[in-house]
Amino acid sequence: MFAESGAARVATRNANFYLETSTMSLARRLWRFAYWFPRDLALRTRLGFPQRLIYFGGRGYGDTMLLNTVAHELHRRHLRTAILTDHPAVLRGSPAVSGTLGLRHWRALEAVARFGGKAQHLPYFLKPQPPTHDEPADSHIITEMCRRAGITGRVDLRTYFYLKPSERDRGARRPRQAAVQVLGPTSENISPLKIYPAERLAAVVQATAGEIDWVQLGSPNDPLLPGALDLRGRTSVPESAAVLAHSRVFLGSPGFLMHLARAVECRSAIIFGGRELPRHGGYSCNENLFAAVPCAPCYRRSDSLHGLDCMNQISVDAVVAAVRHAASRHGEPLAVDTAEVPAHPVPFPLPWLAANTAP
Asked: pTM of the prediction?
């Protein structure tokens, strides 16, 4: 709701709003100018006088991390950028971000625009189709966000996080450390289609117990994983980043911790199932487990078309092999993917929609 209303406000007003409201009397216009000018100037100052103010509008930590990547690309193009988010810890220390405010400060969108800047809503899908799904672009989500930001040319498909040396040193919790997240029905802000069964992940931990010491990250509502050091809900964003930075591999689903692991050069084994394509939302440096069932990728929000066949087809043995292969490459630099930003939206045809509309 915030994203739609905020974008609509900015789209229907401009930087000369103060003196262009012709239906108002001169006294009313002058009063409005005198009232809002110092307030909008104060908001703009708090944001570091940005030329761009970008936002996603959702609750996810991962969305904010992706906004930081867009800010880095704008920074390379000499554009000062601020971000609206409720998760400023994700952006701490970023040289590409001039300032942050919480999502409740919707007026900052207009304040920046009225001083000659540009406020931009940057979703990574082409069009929402509630309640069932979102229409994806046939490009990486970072590429699509950059396109919406007006960026042209080549961009790096990676994320960024800045750890202090003292913080990084505290991330070593076990000798042969690897990090894992387990999702379940009570996990926070997550699609059920991203859940790989907890009992299967427990079997992965058991199969690798003689070679890997597991540390469990995530929210306190995630299922407990036997055999792992339990840090659910006990680490801040920098502390989670430090644990990942000291880990041989991260095992989990697409989401914030996958992006955070990429930012701190931790190779991952990511269980995509069939909801989304790894080339749309993941990183080629990782071990990406995707099940090419007929309905995949579906990009559905909460309901599976065929009882999560995609997740069921990914065996424990396949996950164990992916973990071992990723861990064996620990210490190697992660490859940085790049992409050319398209000038126009590139739709991706969803297989299950095509099947439903076939004659």
From this structure: 0.91
